[in-house]
UniProtKB/TrEMBL annotation:
Top-level division of the source organism's lineage: Eukaryota
Keywords from the named record: Acyltransferase, Transferase
Keyword Transcription: no
PANTHER family reported for this sequence: ACYL-COA N-ACYLTRANSFERASES (NAT) SUPERFAMILY PROTEIN (PTHR46067), N-ACETYLTRANSFERASE DOMAIN-CONTAINING PROTEIN (PTHR46067:SF26)
Protein name (record): Acyl-CoA N-acyltransferase protein
Residue stretches making up the N-acetyltransferase domain: 19-172
MF (Gene Ontology): acyltransferase activity, transferring groups other than amino-acyl groups
């Protein structure tokens, strides 16, 4: 039996190849609210689900804008999530950065978060040459985020029991890492 291929002339709703990172600012508040008001998205975040535009504006102005490395994950020019790298201020911690990200639920499972993490990994070790290690802490129940990190080449190192207080509950966290010397970092830089 001959295989029949049906091709639609209608373009897909979204072209996910146009992913880029840029600074997030107050003009992005409406896009920000699309995912920040979604309980599915905020479930594993340190922040509670946003309930108003004013609350979101204050968060963007007070936390995101002054942050040293916080970017919008954009589809074209539209912010559909965020990604950041933070450093701990402690003595001996300057060689480590922690990556965190959030993405609107309608974009889950499309490779967007993985692509954004790879983009950051390609840049952060160049922008911050003192970094030796990029790590991520993920709730043990957040299987999707764990998969993102695995696909981006991070190594699962173990579980930190009752490590993070999230919305009043001590949670077990899986720790992942990517080292500046890992071969995939060079691959991300040149691909």
């Amino acid at each position: 039996m001959e295989e029949i291929k049906i091709q639609s002339d209608k373009p897909s709703d979204e072209d996910f190849s146009n992913i880029n990172l840029r600074l997030l600012d107050l003009s992005d508040v409406d896009d920000f609210l699309e995912w920040a008001m979604d309980p599915k998205v905020s479930q594993f975040c340190s922040w509670h689900t946003f309930t108003s535009k004013e609350q979101a504006m204050a968060y963007i102005a007070d936390f995101i804008v002054p942050h040293p490395w916080f970017r919008a994950i954009c589809l074209g020019d539209r912010a559909i999530g965020t990604i950041s790298v933070s450093q701990n201020p402690g003595i001996g911690d300057s060689c480590r950065g922690e990556i965190g990200y959030v993405l609107g639920s309608k974009y889950w499972g499309k490779g967007i978060a993985t692509r954004a993490v790879k983009m950051v990994a390609a840049d952060i070790f160049v922008e911050w040459p003192h970094l030796e290690r990029l790590e991520a802490l993920v709730d043990v129940d957040n299987k999707g985020s764990q998969r993102v990190l695995e696909k981006a080449g991070f190594v699962r190192e173990g579980v930190l029991r009752k490590y993070f207080l999230q919305k009043g509950r001590a949670r077990d966290m899986v720790i992942f890492s990517l080292l500046s010397t890992d071969s995939q970092v060079n691959y991300f830089m040149y691909s």
